Each structure stands twice: as structure tokens, then as C-alpha cells.
Automatic annotation (TrEMBL):
It comes from Marinobacter similis. Residues 48-58 have a biased composition (Acidic residues). GO terms for molecular function: hydrolase activity, acting on ester bonds; metal ion binding. The keyword Zinc applies. Residues 206-380 form the Succinylglutamate desuccinylase/Aspartoacylase catalytic domain. Residues 112-121 have a biased composition (Polar residues). This is Succinylglutamate desuccinylase. Its cofactor is Zn(2+). The keyword Acetylation does not apply.
């Protein structure tokens, strides 16, 4: 469904903006020609937005009784969640080899159909992976049922509970090991049956299962690297809990540099999916049933879309106490309240009892070192806060910054030139940039609506009137205080 009906109140102002966002422009074009007369209802292309504009704007307001909401902030985040395996438990067919994730992997072999409906057949993908000779531990000698010998040298936290085996995609991953599996949504169309790598680190000690998903939009690259770095630095012997990374969920989109699936659908509008729906529904379903349901905590990593860039930030439903608590572990992240939209992985996962936030970092099509570092640091901070890892040096408590936010839209079409940079602190009325009309030479300033910080903005480009150009965050109360 690329197109849907959208009622427009004052069509002339809003329509060009819709057009600017719409990818296949053609359809709505003729309706735009009206010289100011009202068009009660207009067909426009569905807005291909992430959580960038509409979802934040249309978000249900944050409930202003933080004490009640996130009083749970004090509850120790780890243990209890940890041992509660999520509903869809799976039966392992074989033990996954312990491999050092830093090793170069052989190209993945086609994996068996991992559709959750069918029990996975004995899988070979990970088995083919070379068992690392350089792995510091000899985990491959730990047999199922045998208690893994946890190094008594840990002088960390309260007595860690030894972990159990973890079963994913038909593989048993022993405690204290890491491995690389392959997920294939089992959609037998050329290019779609290609297996997607899944990285798993099962810590030696019990703890929560944290999942990281990247590139649900295939052109959003920073998350892929954030997940790679985060996971490759984990030492299974020192980890409490598990980390499951899906660096590239939308592999076909990634290969084509496209945000979408090959059928032009936005995968992040189809969760939790369905086994007999559209292509997007099926892929979403397979991911959700096979992997997402195995998680306690989920961070879905995105970037700005449509030539917009985001300061590293979380989108989180602050009305959900568990989610609000989770955000407190992310260091130096802007946290923007957003209740999200139906079909998003974040919403579907929260509904399934998995505490989830979206992380946004930078812009699409780019690898941005700064943004990646911020993402990795923040996830490391989260894992520490969750009791999963222990950092050698801890400077202070994590410091997320909470924002209420507003999008400022261009009132005129033309070429946008920004005077401010991402992250800038701005005051009300300050000029953020100009839209220059290349035909008339007119210049229209865009001003900040409030005192705050530029937490997201459009890169310089041609814009239509109504284009959401600047996302201004104003510091909000810290939940629980
Ligand atoms: Zn995205």
C-alpha cells in the first residue's frame, strides 16, 4: 500500500510538503494545482517517515507525573528479567561453535528455512564457521549440562549466577561462548533467501538478553557499525547475560542502498508481521518470532531519513515505566519521548513485553565516526547499567538528557541553507537558516520557536514549503525527579 487517503484541512499549505516527502511523486501532483481553493480530501503518497517527524509530532503526550511513572527507576535492572525466558522458546538441534567474532567469517551458507512455523532443521551455517584457535577460553570443551567453569578471578559485583545455554535459530549457544549464526526469512525469491548474519555472545554469567537491530532501513549504515563494534568488544567470559546483534536486518535494501524492501515497503511498518501477509509482513514475522521474542531488551538502531540528520538520540515511550527506566542507562544521549506508530518494531516489541527503544544516530547513506562512537559508548554504558559488563573505569553515572521537542517547518519552497549545526544551542527567535528562492531571489529566514538545542535537522537541499527542517529539543524534566 504505497498510497493512502489523507484528509487535509488547508490543503495548499500541507500538500507541497507531503509531495516533497513522497517518493513516487506522480500521483498527488494534479491535486496540488488548485489556486488556494479547498480540496477536502486528497490522495497523497504515504509518508515514508521513520520516527523522524510525524511519529514524534503525533506522539501521545508524555504523562506528567514522573514520580508515579518511573518510580520503578530504582529497581535493579538485571536479574529478574534475566531468567525469564521469553515465550517462544526453541529446541536446539546442535551446539553452535564458539568463534571469535573478530575473526573474518566465511561467506554465509544458505540457511534452512527459519520460519518459526517449522522447527528448524539441523542447521549448518554456523557450523561452517571456523572455530577460532585464538579464542582465549576453551569453551568448546564445555558439554551441555556441564557447569562452565567461570573464572574465579572476577572481583566484580555480587556473586554472579552461571548462565545457561541459549537457543537461537536451532543452535545451542553454550555459556561463555560467542558465535555467528545466519537468519533467513525463508522467502524464496531471488535475493531474499540470502542469509543474514546474527552475532550472539552468551555470557558466562546469567543476565538479561539484549538485542541490537540495525539497518531495518537498508540505507541506514551507522547502526551496522555500532553493532559490530559493540559486539566485537565483548568478552563472553566477562559478560552477564547475552547480546544478540542483527547488524543488517534489511539485507536486500542494504545491497541496493535503499531504505525499503524490494517491494518498496517500509519494513518498520509491518511488525510483528504475519506468516501469510505481504513480503514485508513475512520478513517481519520471521525476525520477530525467531529472534526478537528471545530478547528482554531491544535497541533498534536507525538514522535520520530523507536527508535529515539526528544528534544521537533515543526515541522512547516515556509513559512506559520499564522503557523510561531503560533510558537511564544510556550515557549522554538525548532522549525524546515518542509513543511511536503501529507497525514499528519498537511498538510491537514493547507490546510483546520486550523493553525497547529506538536509537537514532546521524543520517542515512553515511558512515559517521562521531555518531558511531556515541552509539557504542552509550550501549556500553547501558550494558554496564544493566549489570552485564563491568568497565574498568567508571567516571560517573550515565547522563541522558530528556527533551520535549518541536519540528520547525520551512514556510517557503527553495534551497535550504543552514546557519546552525547539529547539536547547536539556540534561543527563541534565532535564525536557524534560510530558504532561498532560486527564481525570485527572495530569502526567507527560519527562526527557532524556542530556547533549546538542534537535535535533528535537514541537510542543505531543495525543500518544499512545509518541509520539516529543524527539530528543536527543549530540556524536559528528568523522569523520577
Ligand atoms: Zn530507519
Amino acid at each position: 500500500m504505497l498510497f493512502r487517503r489523507l484528509s487535509v484541512l488547508t490543503s495548499t499549505r500541507i500538500l507541497p510538503w507531503a509531495l516533497a516527502l513522497a517518493l513516487p511523486v506522480s500521483v498527488a501532483a494534479e491535486t496540488a494545482g488548485s489556486e488556494g481553493e479547498k480540496t477536502p480530501e486528497t490522495m497523497v503518497a504515504a509518508l515514508a517517515e521513520d520516527e523522524s517527524v510525524e511519529d514524534v509530532e503525533q506522539s501521545e503526550p508524555r504523562v506528567k507525573e514522573p514520580g508515579a511513572k518511573s518510580g520503578s527507576a530504582k529497581k535493579p535492572p538485571t536479574e529478574d528479567v534475566a531468567s525469564t525466558p521469553k515465550p517462544a522458546s526453541q529446541t536446539p538441534n546442535k551446539v553452535a561453535p564458539n568463534i571469535d567474532l573478530k575473526d573474518v567469517a566465511p561467506p554465509p551458507k544458505p540457511s534452512p528455512n527459519t520460519d518459526s512455523a517449522s522447527v528448524t532443521k539441523p542447521a549448518q551455517p554456523a557450523a561452517e564457521a571456523k572455530v577460532s584457535e585464538t579464542t582465549p577460553t576453551e569453551d568448546s570443551e564445555v558439554r551441555p549440562g556441564e557447569e562452565p567453569v567461570t573464572a574465579g578471578t572476577e572481583n566484580l559485583t555480587p556473586v554472579p549466577k552461571p548462565a545457561e545455554s541459549f537457543t537461537l535459530l536451532g543452535n545451542e549457544i553454550l555459556p561463555g561462548t560467542s558465535t555467528r549464526l545466519a537468519w533467513s526469512p525463508g522467502i524464496q525469491i531471488a535475493g531474499l533467501s540470502q542469509p543474514t548474519p546474527i552475532l550472539v555472545v552468551n555470557g558466562a554469567n546469567a543476565g538479561p538478553t539484549l538485542c541490537l537491530t540495525g539497518a531495518i532501513h537498508g540505507d541506514e549504515l551507522n547502526g551496522i557499525e555500532i553493532i559490530r563494534r559493540t559486539m566485537y568488544d565483548l568478552d563472553p567470559e566477562k559478560l552477564s547475560g547475552r547480546v544478540v546483534g542483527v547488524p543488517i536486518v534489511n539485507l536486500p535494501g542494504f545491497q541496493q542502498g535503499s531504505r525499503y524492501l524490494p517491494d518498496r515497503r517500509d519494513l518498520n511498518r509491518h511488525f510483528p508481521g504475519s506468516p501469510d501477509g505481504s513480503l514485508a509482513d513475512r520478513i517481519a514475522y520471521s525476525l520477530f518470532e525467531n529472534i526478537i521474542r528471545r530478547c528482554n531488551l531491544l535497541v533498534d538502531i536507525h538514522t535520520g531519513s530523507l536527508k535529515r540528520t539526528n544528534l544521537p538520540q533515543l526515541r522512547a515511550d516515556m509513559n512506559n515505566p520499564d522503557v523510561a527506566t531503560l533510558t537511564q542507562g544510556f550515557d549522554r544521549m538525548a532522549v525524546v519521548h515518542s509513543s511511536g506508530s503501529s507497525g514499528m518494531l519498537r511498538n510491537a516489541a514493547v507490546e510483546a513485553g520486550i523493553t525497547t527503544v529506538t536509537m537514532e544516530a546521524g543520517e542515512s547513506h553515511r558512515i559517521q565516526e562521531h555518531q558511531i562512537e556515541a552509539g557504542v559508548n552509550s550501549l556500553t554504558s547501558l550494558m554496564e547499567r544493566q549489570g552485564m559488563i563491568s568497565r574498568m573505569f567508571v567516571w560517573s553515572d550515565p547522563e541522558p538528557v530528556y527533551y520535549d521537542s518541536d519540528w520547525i517547518r520551512a514556510q517557503h519552497g527553495g534551497i535550504l541553507f543552514s546557519d546552525v549545526e547539529l547539536g547547536a544551542r539556540v534561543s527563541e527567535g534565532e535564525i536557524l537558516g534560510y530558504v532561498a528562492d532560486p527564481i525570485t531571489n527572495a530569502q526567507y529566514p527560519i527562526r527557532s520557536s524556542s530556547n533549546g538545542r538542534v537535535i535533528g535537522m535537514a541537510v542543505d537541499q531543495v525543500v518544499m514549503a512545509g518541509f520539516a527542517a529543524y527539530h528543536i529539543g527543549t530540556e524536559a524534566e528528568i523522569p523520577g525527579e
